[in-house]
Structure formats: C-alpha cells, structure tokens
Design a protein that fits this description.
With 134 residues, this protein is mainly α. It has helices at residues 8-34, 40-49, 51-64, 73-95, 100-123, 126-133.
Amino acid sequence: MFIPSLSPWYLASLAMYVVTVLSVNYWVYSDATARGSSFPSFWSISSIFFWLPALYYLIRYRHLHERQRPPTRGNLIAQTFAISSLSATVVATFFAPPDQFTRTLFVPACFAVTLSVTYVLVYRRQYERILEIA
C-alpha cells in the first residue's frame, strides 16, 4: 500500500482550510440565531456552499435584524478566525507567486499576520472606535 508523504506545510494548509470552514459555519449559525432567524442552519450551510445567499446574509440580512443577544466569547473567536482565514486566502491569491507550492507556504504565514490584526479589530472591538472616528 502506497501512502504519499505529506509535508508539514500541506498539513498546515489543510488544517487552515478546516478551521476556515468550521469557523465560518459556526459564526454564521450563531450570528443568525442571535438575530432571531428562523433558519440559522440555512444561512450556515449556504455560507459554505453557495456564495449568493451568503453575500445576501452578510450585506442585507445582518443590517435589517438587530442582535437580540450580545456576542458570546465563542462567537467572537469564530468571527476572528473566519475573517482572518478568509482575508489570508484573498491576500495570498493576489500577492503570492503563481506557483502552487509557494502559495502553500505563503497562506499560513499570511494567516498569522491577519490573525493578529483581526484579533485587535474584532475581539478587542477596536473596529467600533475606527467607525466612530470616520
């Protein structure tokens, strides 16, 4: 039986993909539940598989419905991981070299940088101060 050798960078990228999917899924589900949605599972699943309903939820639905409960610690952690992993993927898409092996090395490093920035903005709620200044 042949088992291919897996590099640590490949495993790190695979783990980051799993963290992205789970954190986005949990964050959207808990956010939809806190906003009183009748179908939080629909929003959660659509955020992973279908981009149009996910964009509708993020752009329109969230602004039409106020939160009925404050965000929990788990919700803030999931939001932090979701935003940082998605932004690391987007940054790597535009700024990494076109080589797939180099991009595999670039994404986890970019995730570490975006995680620290997102932690300050989301988890410490510094983005509210930015909105007050602007």
